[in-house]
UniProtKB/TrEMBL annotation, chain A:
Keywords: DNA-directed RNA polymerase, Nucleus, Transcription. GO terms for biological process: transcription by RNA polymerase III; transcription elongation by RNA polymerase I. This is DNA-directed RNA polymerases I and III subunit RPAC2. Residues 12-83 form the DNA-directed RNA polymerase RBP11-like dimerisation domain.
From TrEMBL, chain B:
It comes from Corchorus olitorius. This is DNA-directed RNA polymerases I and III subunit RPAC1. It holds the Pfam family RNA_pol_A_bac. Gene3D superfamilies: DNA-directed RNA polymerase, insert domain (2.170.120.12), RNA polymerase, RBP11-like subunit (3.30.1360.10). GO terms for cellular component: RNA polymerase I complex; RNA polymerase III complex. Its main location: nucleus. GO terms for biological process: DNA-templated transcription. Keywords: DNA-directed RNA polymerase, Nucleus, Transcription. InterPro entries: DNA-dir_RNA_pol_30-40kDasu_CS, DNA-dir_RNA_pol_insert, DNA-dir_RNA_pol_RpoA/D/Rpb3, RBP11-like, RNAPI/III_AC40, RNApol_insert_sf, Rpo3/RPB3_RNA_Pol_subunit. The lineage of its organism: Eukaryota, Viridiplantae, Streptophyta, Embryophyta, Tracheophyta.
Length: 127, 309
């Protein structure tokens, strides 16, 4: 991560390597919802380079800290989504297994893979 | 003078526009709420497609649009619509498109899987060219959990922790009918490559050097001892062989991500859409209702009995 601000800490452009819309748009979303942010946006300077520039302008707080908090918010959000998702899918599989057992009690209860619940991945943060 | 000022301040406060009964404090007027929560599909184009993200967007009407994490925590929920081994559809309620889209992008491009990356062809007399064959092999999904493996870096030696080796050796005898080579012909080699490097000095007493350097058999790794590694589906057609044709090769699978090549993408596709809501502008009854119901191919509409009396 590069830091593109000199003097004024409340304005900064961060250049994130090996990232794209996936992280940048999500971070922009959480940044925008932070009341300390006056302006934020991101751009991909060249489509062939794996790099995004995220500009943050705050009402006074250091932009670096605000970006960190936004990433933290995003992580917490994703964690909550992951937990909720795992819980819902787990409950569904459990209830289906029970149903199957009840309807075909003589048949062997199907062994349901628990792999699928891992299809949601966590955001990777590069600080 | 000072008293006058104060008085004026008071009167201003008294007649603040926010105190008028039709300006509800703390909640948005209906039309803004509609903009914020719905994409409208109009005749010409959809409108309000972008969500309002800025925290101070509604500051003038006294509504805080910033992220309230506890609010999100309490309102977010997941509802599974369909779940099978290969297919899943679920609703995420209380989430912004920015986050949902991030998940979609992650599913397609950033989740690692194992796929065949290197193919060492010893003999290929089939009509399928070497490079086409290698490409086809790369696209075959391999039924293994990639979390048991590491990435193979540029300077790494392929070993039991970053490479899976398959062997494919099929031939069609002269005079026999054509045969179809399917993915179940790919045989897992838990001990690594069997092809000997030509540069190996012949005088050395040590075992000949191959294209991988496994220190132990992958079969000794507990995860694979019970379920041997194989292509996920046994019936994927790789090539067809005519009489007298033969394919002999070794395929090395490594860990990778969909952003490098689609063969590492774990999904056929992943997509999201906004949750649809159909609003009828007027009550539709009798024959008209029957007609409306029959016109929709996916059975969106149903007819309800009107309460009599």
């Amino acid at each position: 991560m590069e830091h593109g601000s000199f003097g004024d800490e409340s304005v900064a452009t961060f250049s994130l390597n090996e990232e794209d819309h996936t992280l940048a748009n999500a971070v922009r979303f959480t940044l925008n919802q932070d009341p300390r942010v006056r302006f934020c946006g991101y751009s991909i300077p060249h489509p062939s380079d794996a790099r995004v520039n995220v500009k943050v302008q705050t009402t006074g707080d250091p932009a670096k800290e605000v970006l960190k908090d936004a990433c933290q918010d995003l992580m917490q959000m994703c964690e909550h989504i992951r937990n909720t998702f795992d819980k819902t899918v787990g409950e569904l599989k459990a209830s289906e297994a029970v149903k199957k057992k009840n309807s075909h009690s003589q048949e062997k209860a199907m062994d349901i893979d628990s792999q699928e619940s891992d299809s949601e991945s966590e955001e990777s943060e590069s600080n | 003078m000072a008293g006058q000022e104060e008085e004026r301040g008071d009167t201003k406060k008294k007649f603040s526009i926010f105190d008028l009964p039709d300006v509800p404090m703390g909640q948005l007027p209906d039309h803004l709420q509609l903009h914020r929560t719905r994409v409208l599909c109009n005749n010409d184009a959809p409108i309000h497609t972008e969500s309002v993200q800025y925290s101070g967007a509604y500051a003038t009407v006294g509504v805080d649009n910033s992220l309230r994490f506890d609010h999100f925590r309490n309102n977010f929920r997941v509802e599974v619509v369909r779940l099978t081994e290969e297919d899943m559809e679920f609703d995420m309620v209380g989430i912004d498109a920015a986050i949902a889209n991030a998940f979609r992008r992650i599913l397609i491009a950033e989740l690692p899987t194992m796929a065949i990356e290197k193919v060492l062809i010893a003999n290929n007399t089939s009509v399928v060219q070497d490079e086409v064959l290698a490409h086809r092999l790369g696209l075959i999904p391999i039924g293994v959990d990639p979390r048991h493996f590491e990435y193979l870096s540029e300077n790494d030696q392929p070993n039991e922790r970053n490479t899976i080796v398959f062997k494919l050796h099929v031939s069609c005898k002269r005079g026999s009918p054509r045969i179809t080579v399917k993915s179940d012909e790919l045989k897992w080699l838990p001990n690594g490559s069997e092809l000997v490097k030509e540069s190996t000095p012949s005088d050395s007493a040590s075992k000949p050097e191959t294209y991988t350097s496994f220190s132990c058999s992958q079969e000794t790794i507990p995860e694979f001892a019970k379920n041997p590694i194989a292509p996920k589906y046994p019936d994927i057609i790789i090539a067809k062989l005519g009489p007298g044709q033969e394919i002999e090769l070794e395929a090395h699978a490594v860990k990778g991500k969909g952003k490098t090549h689609a063969k590492w993408s774990p999904v056929a596709t992943a997509w999201y859409r906004m949750f649809p809501e159909v609003v009828l502008l007027e009550e539709v009854e009798d024959d008209l209702a029957e007609e409306l119901k029959s016109k929709c191919p996916v059975d969106v509409f149903d007819i309800e009995d009107l309460g009599k009396g």
